[in-house]
């Protein structure tokens, strides 16, 4: 296979791997009824006028499957952390005892589980769309190589390789979504 086509395939593969990583990251933010420090990843706290990720101003851990404990490194941050958690709309009520914040993760109702499965399907579809867009960009870049004197046959085989990559990565997205659905629906 032509070297320019190989380079384009490597670029597409790298972009698709990033799309998978992003989808996986988005799926971990959807809670499955079990407490996990990752549930607080998108929360930022006002730390001396700077918006700072919660994990950089406090210790976040899970003593059991239903509780998250946030222990700030400075007691003065307790109220700011509590406010940030309440503003984040993650569905958890912080309980401040003066030194740490406890978050009780309620068990999921059947209806809520179905809603979360819908969210998982939406995220998976976003991942598939991202991969298809990368396929389109890869194919367009390979077609442009015709100007560099690359034969029609090589271009066709390059596009076939891009399609194989696309199929493989879409299967990975589906596997991630299936795992997350099983995790959510397990009581």
Topology (elements, then pairings):
Layout (H helix, E strand, L loop, with lengths): L2 H26 L15 E4 L2 E4 L4 E7 L2 E6 L5 H10 L6 E3 L4 E4 L5 H35 L7 H34 L2
Antiparallel strand pairs: 1-2, 3-4, 4-6, 5-6
Helix pairs in contact: 1-3, 1-4, 3-4
Can you walk through the features of this model?
It is a single chain. The chain has 187 residues and is of the alpha+beta class. The protein has 4 helices and 6 strands. The strands form 2 sheets. Strands 3-4-6-5 form a 4-stranded antiparallel β-sheet, covered by helices on one side. Strands 1-2 form a two-stranded antiparallel sheet. A hairpin with a 2-residue loop joins strand 1 and strand 2. Helix 1 runs parallel beside helix 4 and helix 3 runs antiparallel to helix 4. The mean pLDDT is 87.
Main sheet strand line-up: 3-4-6-5
* Span of the ends, CA to CA: 51 Å
Low-confidence stretches: none
**What composes the largest sheet?**
4 strands, antiparallel
Shape, principal axes of CA atoms:
elongated
Residue-averaged pLDDT: 87
Oligomer: single chain
Gyration radius from CA atoms, angstroms:
22 Å
Beta-strand percentage?
5-15%
What class do helices, strands and sheet pairing give? alpha+beta
Q: Write down how many β-strands occur, each being a DSSP E stretch of 2 or more residues.
A: 6
Helix tally? 4
Helix-residue proportion: 55-70%
SSE topology string: HEEEEHEEHH
Give a quick set of tags describing it.
alpha+beta; four-stranded antiparallel beta sheet; 187 residues; two-stranded antiparallel sheet; 6 strands
Question: What's this model, at a glance?
Answer:
With 187 residues, the protein is an alpha+beta fold.
């Amino acid at each position: 296979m032509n070297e320019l086509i190989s380079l384009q395939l490597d670029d597409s593969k790298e972009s698709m791997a990033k799309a998978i990583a992003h989808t996986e990251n988005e799926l971990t933010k959807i809670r499955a009824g079990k407490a996990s420090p990752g549930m607080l990843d998108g929360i930022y706290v006002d730390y001396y006028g700077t918006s700072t990720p919660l994990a950089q101003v406090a210790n976040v851990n899970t003593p059991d499957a239903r509780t998250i404990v946030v222990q700030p490194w400075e007691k003065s941050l307790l109220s700011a952390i509590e406010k940030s958690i309440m503003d984040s709309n993650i569905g958890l009520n912080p309980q401040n005892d003066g030194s740490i914040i406890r978050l009780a993760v309620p068990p999921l109702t059947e209806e809520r589980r179905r809603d979360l499965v819908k969210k998982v399907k939406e995220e998976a579809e976003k991942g598939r769309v991202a991969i298809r867009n990368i396929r389109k960009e890869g194919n367009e870049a390979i077609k442009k190589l015709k100007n560099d004197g690359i034969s029609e046959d090589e271009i066709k085989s390059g596009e076939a390789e891009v399609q194989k990559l696309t199929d493989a990565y879409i299967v990975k997205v589906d596997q991630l979504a299936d795992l997350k659905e099983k995790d959510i629906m397990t009581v």
